[in-house]
Structure formats: C-alpha cells, structure tokens
Amino acid sequence: MKNIQQMPDGYLNRTPLFQFILLSCLFPLWGAAASLNDILITQFKSVFTLSDFASALVQSAFYGGYFLIAIPASLVIKKTSYKVAILIGLTLYIVGCSMFYPASHMATYTMFLAAIFSIAIGLSFLETAANTYSSMIGHKDYATLRLNISQTFYPVGAIAGILLGKYLIFQEGASLNEQMVGMTPEQIHDFKLAMLEHTLQPYKYLIFVLITVTILFLLTQFPKCKVVNSDSTKSEVKVTDTLKYLAGNSAFKKGIIAQFLYVGMQVAVWSFTIRLALNLSSMNERDASNFMIYSFIGFFIGKFVANFLMTRFKSDAVLMWYSVLGVVTLGYTAFVQDFSAVYAAIFASVLFGPCWATIYASVLNTVKQEHREVAGAVVVMSIIGAAVVPAIHGYVSDALGSLQLAFIVPLFCFAYVGYYFFGKIKNNQ
C-alpha cells in the first residue's frame, strides 16, 4: 500500500485496488445466502405444508440475526478494526453453513431456522464492517460511488445462490405438490426427507469458498480507516452518547425508515416471485426459479444504469424517479391477472438496484464522523425490515387468499422511499 495515506477523518488519499476488490468480494457472499432463502421458502412451503406467513419466517430468522448483532459488531470495529470484524463474520458464516449438516437430517423447520439465524449472525458482522469500510477505503468525494461499485457485486452472488438452489435443491419433474399426489403417508414422509437432504448441497460449496476468502483476508494487509482524534486528551465517544445523538437526528431517522422499508420490499418481492410464477402457471419449482435469475440480472443492470445516471444527475432525483416507476410496476404486479405480472415483478428488481447503497451513504452523510461506526451498525439494523415486511406480505396473502394482491405491501414501501427522496430534493433546493 505504498503512497497511500490516511486522512484525519479516516478516508484515504486514494483507494488500494487489491484490498478494495477483495472487500467487494464479500458482497456476493451475502448475496448468495440471501437468494438461497428464496429457494428455501419455496421448498419449505411444500415440504412442511406451511402458510405464506409461516414460510416467510425464513426471512424473519435471517434478518433478525442482522438486527441483534449489528451493534455488537460495531463495538468490535470500534475496539479493533474492520478487518477483525470481517474475519469474525466469515468464521461465523462458516459455522452457520455447517449447521445445515444436522438440520438436513433432523428435518425440523425450527432447526433450519436456527441454521439460517446462525448464518445471519456472521453476515451481520460482514455487512456492518464491509458497507462502511467500502465507503471509507479511498477519497471521501467518491465514497458513495465506491459503495455502489461494491454493491454491484451483490447480484453476482445472488445469481450464483439461485443457480445452486435450482440445480442442487430443486429437482426435475413435476412440482413437489403434484409429485406427492397419490402417495401414501409413508411415501410422502420419505419423499419429504429426501427433499430436505438436498438443502445441504449448496452450503457445502459455500463453505469451501468462505474458507478461501478467509485465508486471503488473513494474509492481506488492510488500512485502518479510523478517525484520527486530534485532541489526545479527548475521551472516546460512548455508544450511549452516539445513540442519543442519533435519536435526535431527524434526517438520520427518516433515512432509517426508508432503508427499513426498502430492504423489506426488496426481500418481500424476491421471496414470493417464484411462488407467483408457480401460481400463474403449471411449471415446476426448478423452472420457476429461472425468474429469480432474471430478477437478479435485472437488479445488476439497474445498478449499472443508476451508476451512469448518477454521474449526470443528482442521486436523490434518480432514486425518486426509480421509486415512481417502482410504484407503477408493483401496481401492475398486484392487479394484472396474467403471467405478465411475473415480468413486472422482475422489472421491479431493476428499480431496486441503486437503493441500498444510495440510502446507506445518504444516511451516513447526516452523521458526524465520530459516530460513524455505530451509525453504520444502526443502518444495518434497519435490515430488520426484511424480517417484517415479507411476514406482513405473507399475512396479507393468507388473509386475502391471493399472493398476487399482497404485492400491494411492497408497493406502499416503494411509495415511502420515493417520498423520502422527494423530501431530500425539496430540502436541498
């Protein structure tokens, strides 16, 4: 890292390329875990005979882990470094994947939820560290751009997760429900056990990848990117003081709500896209999973288009218009009663592309430097929206008797995101 200097505010004079690439490689790792949840929801729905609300608890377990661990992860960063927090996260991720060995043989829904929760604990460390670190590891003027570039790797991992699920969890032939028609109770029991054993396969491959990435991080030197306190006599800022400061920061709180709803609507749409395709056609789970691949390709394209637009227009304006289109698109998904609704859900993924990174950077910009580690953790905690909104989506689906109409839930979330960026534009005029 020759000729790279750290500024007093924690930013660097330029970005160390190899370290930034390695850091960005973490983003597809949690993308793969998140997209595998969409596969598991569909598999568990049939195998455990769950309601839409109960099947959405996969996301509640996953993102609940983020919520509980984000603040402890930020404290680890404050006391040690971003690198240490990342290594802890990778180790816990490996432990969580390993729990699929007993879960696939015990064949209980609660054991699978425990394994998913364990993975989420590791990912909370990774996201809390990597999102803020990506914005810090270079010149301050390009913080949002760096985070958007790193986030561009996310859909690569998401597509990999869907492909692993498609070919290793889902099987050929008719849908699971159709295959179980005419089976005896004993045959159904054996069939379900066989289907659950398939859920282990993608996590075996993930463990090998995670071990490789962990070794690379251990062997690579990373800059601290910590604020240099010019007053040596000044005491360290306490977490309680930071939380009080954030509680009184109205701009920060509005951004947290926007991030909460954005993550919730994204995960809700992705959780039920496969199910929507199954409901509106006669295809099986493996074929229906193709539409999630298309969704993540669209998500990837949406990021690139947004990155280009944000070099020419203000990011707030870009996100506001993405949100307007998102409301229209999800309205089409909810109310048009034919298979084109699935393609509308896919186009919604294009519009999700720039949201997380832009909101994240926008929220952190409202916070003083000395509060950034904990503030970043609170933004990551807003991921709890992905535990809440999909569950509401599932509940509304059960109540209305229509999974498709329940897409009005993410529609209202996108409307608030648009309102948030519209407010930012007005305040900056």
From TrEMBL:
The chain crosses the membrane at residues 20-41, 53-77, 84-103, 109-131, 152-170, 203-220, 260-279, 291-310, 317-335, 341-362, 374-396, 402-422. Pfam families: MFS_1. This is L-fucose:H+ symporter permease. GO terms for molecular function: fucose:proton symporter activity. One of its GO terms (cellular component) is plasma membrane. It comes from Caviibacterium pharyngocola. It is a multi-pass membrane protein. Keywords: Cell membrane, Membrane, Transmembrane, Transmembrane helix. InterPro entries: Lfuc_symporter_FucP, MFS, MFS_trans_sf, MFS_TsgA-like. NCBIfam families: fucP (TIGR00885). Gene3D superfamilies: MFS general substrate transporter like domains (1.20.1250.20).
